Amino acid sequence: MIKAPDYVLQVKAYVPGKPAEELERELGIKGSIKLASNENPLGPSKLAIEAIANCTAGLNRYPDGGGFYLRQKLSQVLGVNQDCFILGNGSNELLDIAVRTFMGPGDEAVMARPSFVVYASSVRIQGGIPVEVPLTGDFRHDLDAMAKAVTPKTRMLFIANPNNPTGTINTEAELDGLFASIPPEILVVMDEAYYEYVTAPEYARSMRHFLAKKNILILRTFSKIYGLAGLRIGYGISHPGILDQMDRVRPPFNTGAISQAAAMAALDDVGHVEMSRKINNQGKEFLYGELSALGLEYIPTEANFIFLPVENAASLYEKLLRDGVIIRPMGPGAVRITIGTPEENARLIETLKKILDIKGLIIE
Ligand SMILES: Cc1ncc(COP(=O)(O)O)c(C=O)c1O
User: How far does residue 355's CA lie from ligand 1's centre (Å)?
Assistant: First the structure.
């Protein structure tokens, strides 16, 4: 049988959750809620839905591979030259393109643990070596330790800000410190999938480092606050010299016409983004209060999900699942729960009340 290189075979395939409909059939339940994948529970903007409906006539044609109009729109919205944007089939594809562009077998990439799992698998598939640096005691990227983990073989450094799965952020001062202490040849990937949810004033402003001509690739997505995860579209911001190299690796028609049109319309609907952030903040405050009352520890979040260190994550996950509440176990000692609509959040809490005793322990 034909065999992939060992470094590919070392990687485990991503196991997606089952569709909610299939789980309902298996468990014999109805009306389950999904708080597992950090999607926007309000859905996309009405403007995006209209744009999708208006886009069907030209589908016999290939899309505009360079995404001219979407890049033009991003340029207007963010005040950065159009040449400084690259589009991807989700920001996930851009992570992958960056790794394939800048890393070869034996090269190292520094990243945090736990963080977004795709960084390590993407690096391994390229024959590279992920160098994983534990988070700080308060569950944030330890940028000092990450800078110290850099060696002459390091090509890239990944920062999820906010981090998935912990929802924590790094500050402006910390990012300044990192750039001051690493060699300028290393590409710093700032993965800002949850950027639009952040409200903390100390949040690191990656754009400032981009404007200061640092070696930075900022990644953002339409999958989260814009509510378009199913369409797969995200964008990167970097210098034309970096993007020119990534363009050699990018497949010619990697983002579809419908996705581009929906993304443009979504950028027009500032009200929808503001409403989504407001509902998320209200949900966050509600959940903080209720989780504390239940005796559960949680990590304060700047994203649309909450990380809870728990004793028996698998059992909590299973029990919630049987009651139709789908969350995400994160190894044996933690779960991650997406903040939902007010109704979904209330249902989560009611279900937890049935499952936990007064000390916050699972009733077996
Ligand atoms: C930190 C982080 N980065 C990137 C992504 C990828 O998002 P997408 O490919 O949908 O843009 C996700 C999705 O969950 C994420 O949590």
Answer: 31
Q: What is the pLDDT of residues 97-156, one digit of tens each?
A: 999 999 999 999 999 999 999 999 999 999 999 999 999 999 999 999 999 999 999 999
Distance of CA 309 to the CA centre of its chain: 20
Ligand 1 pocket at CB < 6 A: 38, 90-92, 116, 160, 164, 191, 193, 221, 223, 229, 234
Mutate to test the pocket of ligand 1, among 221, 235, 307 (most ligand atoms within 8 A of CB): 221
What is the model's pTM? 0.96
Ligand 1 centroid to residue 224 C-alpha, Å: 8
What are the tens digits of pLDDT across the range 141-173? 999 999 999 999 999 999 999 999 999 999 999
Choices 3.90.420.10, 3.40.640.10, 3.40.190.290, 3.30.1300.10: CATH for 46-269: 3.40.640.10
Domain boundaries of the chain, sorted by first residue: 6-43+271-355, 46-269
CATH top-level class of 6-43+271-355 = alpha beta
